[in-house]
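Question (not urgent): is this output format expected?
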Amino acid sequence: MPDKVRWGVLGVAKIATAKVIPAMQKGEWSEVVAIASRDSNKATTAAGKLGIRKAFGSYEELLSDPDVEAIYNPLPNHLHVPWSIRAADAGKHVLCEKPIAMSVAECRTLIAARDRTGVKIGEAFMVRTHPQWLRARDLAHSAEIGELRAVLGAFSYFNRDAANIRNIQEFGGGAIMDIGCYPIQIARFLFGREPETAAAVIDRDPQMQTDRLSSVLLAFPSGHCAFTCSTQLVPYQRIQILGTKGRIEIEVPFNPSPDRKTRLFIDNGADLWGSGMRIEEFPACDQYTIQGDLFSQAVRGRGEVPTPLEDSIANMAVIEAVFESARTGGAVRVAS
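Got this back:
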């Protein structure tokens, strides 16, 4: 039997209680042993529903528990780095939700904490571990689609609740931080390089001032990525990967259901009606289970952190360039 890593969870965020914790509880390498909330009743209720044996009324209590080896941090964006640093200082490994920081400078402080304490810290970009994305990357570099030249995408949902954390600008809300970070991450993942420049147009909500509709163009050395993301559009997500000879369409790129098969559509470009298309199917799987187990294995010295902080700071540099481009009205060079 694997030597499971004992996890504690900071907060009772919906993504944690509805998706990540149940998924990690199915893992071979992960065991969730504790959960904390600033409201002890919320922690106790969540622990009871999820079968977690320890509930704490403060994050500090959880971090001081010697039984907890690793922390999952799903707190609001502005609390990612402060509490991840506190966890590292307590000797805990940290898997933190995306975007892991509010800025490149803040991400640097997290890297310094990791290097100082020697713990493992990673960003929870679960898509990087899903079999459909691993296969898509292999196909993107195969002769089947020729040279990879463009990644096109859309990612949207509708949420105008001013009290929702995703709509509070000072807490890191808005479309780019919440969901635009995904196509940025995936374009970098597919091209295997960093973009040189970013250009963006952003429409902000007149009351909340968060970016509600953002369109972005990233110029890589060998091609382009273009995507639109929005917090006030019909729920939708797609990615197209275009090569000189063929294309790949990813049906549900970012939130595939754990109980349904996923599909890639590979088209050789024979005609515009898809007569040259084939479909690859992948068995149902939970990307959060995979992510948790891979991180746990890294803690046990049996692999690498799936999304290390070096990748996180590069992704954050692109996000900063996107916002700067929208502010200035021109293309901005992405900091190396």
